[in-house]
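Give me the fold.
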Amino acid sequence: MKVIEIAFTGYSVTDMKRAKGFYEGVLGLQKSRAFGQHEGEEQWVEYDIGAGCLALISGGGTTWPPHPAGTAVALEVDDFDGFVAKLRTSDAKFIWEPKESPICWMAVVADPDDNWVVIHHRKPNQPAAGA
């Protein structure tokens, strides 16, 4: 028995419309699925990214509250500098300014609920996670 992949990374959000504006508008993700409705607003929204999935959960409040030092998802991007520039023009809050490591470039920003989002780009000839 073994773990074979990440099923999803879940972020609790306080305002689904605002969160979708960040993930869809700023980061350019496309919604894959949505579940549940409350007062006309989706309560669970999923974005398939490669083999993984990012889920936004609204109405979590006491059951799944946002936490700024909690879970972070790392998004592999094809144009690191382009994403950093786009995040700057959207006034995203940078937790970690862009930095280079021996295997990648990385920056960390906060979404509207202070969840951390890692913008990541592997250097050439570096294997993907789990490869």
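The mean pLDDT is 83.
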